[in-house]
Amino acid sequence: MEYNDLIKTYLEQEIDILKRIDVSAVNEVLNLLEAGIKREATIYVFGNGGSAATASHFQNDFNKGVSEHIDKKFRFLCLNDNVATVMAVANDVGYEEVFRFQLQGKIKEGDILMAISGSGNSPNVINAVEYGKKQGCKVVGLTGYSGGRLKELSDISLHVPINSMQITEDVHMIFNHLMMSVFYKSMCGIDHIKN
Predict the structure, then answer these.
(1) Integer CA distances (angstroms), 13 to 86, 142, 146, in order
(2) Which residue has better confidence, 190 or 172?
(3) Rounded to whole angstroms, what are the CA distances from 182 to 30, 94, 118, 152, 185?
(4) Could you report the per-residue pLDDT of 82-127, keeping only the tens digit for each?
(5) Per-residue pLDDT tens for 41-75?
(6) Partner residues linked to 183 by β-bridges
(7) What is the four-CA torsion angle of 85, 88, 92, 96, rounded to 10 degrees?
(8) The domain spanning residue 81 has which CATH number?
(9) Alpha-carbon distance 13 to 26, whole Å?
(10) pLDDT at 189 over 90
(11) Number of structural domains, the chain?
(12) Residue 149 contacts residue 127 (beta carbons within 8 Å)
């Protein structure tokens, strides 16, 4: 079967979306994270499904990738990585509480929530974000589609304006690697892009 046209269409859509990314919003997130590392804030990152994988990847890239080369380390904590805790809360309390439950009694004013939801309407993500805001935390929301409730609640919105979960999740990973790359250069003095 010939898939070339479908492949080209997908790539064209992704390129178009990348050209429409709000660079100033990415810059705001970089400044928020940089200020956070200075005050030793915890950055709670979380999502469901593919967004859970992205959240885990954020934690890895900042806690190991960038932090390996700086004295003061990032404190990313991925709330969906402890499967036993997530399953226990889901079973005993309810799936809509798997993230908020983990924040209760731990999150402090000045911490940062990096919430990832393609639709922007995942109940467990929204519950955690609403709780975090009440505790005085800033919220970075990574969304797609219309952005949903998460976009409305976010202090900084990294929105992917397309009705495609695949391209939305692609671009969320690009946000991760883009910010990591910027910090490699600005914080670590490392340039991974060689001409």
Answers:
(1) 35, 19, 17
(2) 172
(3) 8, 38, 24, 27, 5
(4) 999 999 999 999 999 999 999 999 999 999 999 999 999 999 999 9
(5) 999 999 999 999 999 999 999 999 999 999 999 99
(6) none
(7) 60
(8) 3.40.50.10490
(9) 20
(10) no
(11) 1
(12) no
160, part of any domain: yes
| Domain presence at residue 146 | yes
Domain assignment of residue 139, given as a range: 4-186
- 140 closest CA partner among 152, 155, 159: 155
Task: Provide the terminal-to-terminal Cα distance of the chain, rounded to the nearest Å.
Answer: 38
What's at 123, amino acid-wise?
P
Alpha helices in 39-164 (DSSP H): 50-60, 83-92, 100-103, 123-134, 148-153
Contacts of 58-62 with CB under 8 Å at 24 or more apart are: 58/114, 58/176, 61/176, 61/177, 61/180, 62/33, 62/180, 62/183
CA-to-CA separations, 11 to 8, 27, 53, 112, 167, in angstroms, rounded: 5, 25, 22, 33, 9
Q: What is the dihedral of CA 57, 174, 30, 73, to 10 degrees?
A: 30
Residue 194: inside a domain, yes or no?
no
- Structure tokens given for 22: 């709000």
